[in-house]
Amino acid sequence: MKIDEMMKEIDCIINELKDSNSDIDKSIDSYKKGMELIEKCLIELEEKKIKIKTITGEDFNI
Amino acid sequence: MRIREIKISELNEYINKTIKNDFLLKNVLVEGEVSNINIHHTKNIYFTIKDEQGRLQCIFFKKDDDSNIIKFENIIVGDWIQCLGNVSFFKQSGTINFLVSDIKRKDVSDEKHKLDELKAKLNEKGYFDLSNKKDIERNPKKIGIITSPTGAVIHDIYNVIKRRYPIVDLILYPAFVQGIEAEESIINGIKNLDDYGVDTIIIARGGGSSEDMQVFNLETVADAIFEAKTPIISAVGHEVDFTIADFVADVRASTPSVAAEISVPDILNIIRDLETKKIYATNILKNKFNELYNDVQNKIKNFLSIDFETKINAQILYCERSRKILQLGVEKTIKDYEIKLKMYEDMLKTLNPHNLFDKGWSIAYKENIIKSANDLKKNDILKINFKDGFAKVEVKEVNKYEN
């Protein structure tokens, strides 16, 4: 899954969790999935940073 | 025979006496064409008459009461006259002259009238029009010459042409240029050379009496000249002689030598011209080369004067700046993602259902989560989840809030 798609899904999970009527188990599962997606995104971003460093030969400035 | 030795004066005296005593030399009437006239300031007139074979020096001594002077003053070169006089010997100069006492101009009005009529007729037919004149080939390969094979004319023409333009071929058509055979001979010459294919035809003859040149005033000869495809130069007689052939020909030359000069260029001039052109062309090439050479030199100079280091450094700087912009762009994108993810993470953590346990809340299940008292009845066994464990409990009593 691409990072944008994952971000979109995280956004959906947050909206879902904001709904107080949602099922607690489902909420916990969603929460768990959201955190996993965040982790995946971070890994992806780290990989991209390495790729950029390879291209530019410089460390990340921001 | 015994040789006698005498003085010139004695001999001249003897000749003078002999001539004076010869009655055949007195009151003689001779006729001929006037070839030159010289009127002395004393009004004595010196002139020459000639015919086909010879010349005669004539003198008219003016007398005070002489009415004949008017007749003498009116004669011109070319006139055919009859002279009455005596043969005389001048002892001092040792010359024989004809002392003329009277002259009579021979009537040529009929012949002249006929000639004028023919001229008018040919003029009407366009024979003399400049628009019908053909141009003489400037660099001929073959020249045809119609003239007598003997005599000075052919030699003059040959010498002039070979001196001026030795590379041309000369083709002589031997012709009669006077007499009864001349007409056919000249016409055949024109036709033959025209058919043979030469670049120019010269019709030439030397000087002579007007009778000698009669053939060049014939209509048939004029027709042949006009109808020829080849340009024709006529050179008949001396400079003062004009014939119909001269008017019809494409070019009239005053003498055969002039005709030869007109018919060919001077090869020395051609060589000089070529030399000049060669120098001119060489100079053009040299100038062109110098222009190109200078142009190339300037380009090299301009090229060498370019500060490549500055240019390259500017390009490097530009690339560096572009690279930085790109890098910052991509880094910012990633940073944005990270910020957004951090925000999501914080939000998720806030929304974590386990947070309820931290606040002292617990969750009761039977099969599903118990959300209402209506879901329970007495003696139901429930599972209650805490933050750090669970308990199984039995429902003793179910009470509902009154709302």
Concise structural overview:
The complex is a heterodimer of chains A (62) and B (403). By secondary structure, chain A is mainly α.
Describe the structure using short key phrases:
heterodimer; A: mainly alpha; 2 helices; rod-shaped; B: 403 residues; alpha/beta; five-stranded parallel β-sheet; 43% helix
Question: Any chance you could write out the topology, listing elements then pairs?
Answer:
The complex is a heterodimer of chains A (62) and B (403).
Chain A: H1 3-18, H2 24-56
Helix pairs in contact in A: 1-2
Chain B: H1 8-21, E1 28-39, E2 45-50, E3 55-60, H2 69-74, E4 80-90, E5 95-105, H3 109-124, E6 142-147, H4 152-164, E7 169-174, H5 182-196, E8 200-205, H6 219-227, E9 232-236, H7 244-248, E10 251-252, H8 256-263, H9 267-305, H10 308-350, H11 355-358, E11 363-365, E12 381-385, E13 390-394
Parallel strand pairs in B: 3-5, 6-7, 6-8, 8-9, 9-10
Antiparallel strand pairs in B: 1-2, 1-4, 2-3, 4-5, 11-12, 12-13
Helix pairs in contact in B: 4-8, 5-6
Folded structure, characterized:
The complex is a heterodimer of chains A (62) and B (403). Chain A has 62 residues and is mainly α. In chain A, helix 1 (3-18) runs antiparallel to helix 2 (24-56). Chain A has 2 helices and no strands. Chain B is an alpha/beta fold. Chain B has helices spanning 8-21, 69-74, 109-124, 152-164, 182-196, 219-227, 244-248, 256-263, 267-305, 308-350, 355-358; strands at 28-39, 45-50, 55-60, 80-90, 95-105, 142-147, 169-174, 200-205, 232-236, 251-252, 363-365, 381-385, 390-394. In chain B, the strands form 3 sheets. In chain B, strands 1-2-3-5-4 form a 5-stranded mixed beta barrel. A 5-stranded parallel β-sheet of chain B has the order 7-6-8-9-10. In chain B, helix 4 (152-164) packs parallel to helix 8. The A-B interface holds A 3, 7, 10-11, 13-14, 17-18, 23-25, 27-28, 31, 34-35, 38, 41-42, 45, 48-49, 52, 56, 58, 60-62 and B 323, 327-328, 330-332, 334-335, 337-338, 340-341, 344-345, 347-348, 351-354, 363, 369.
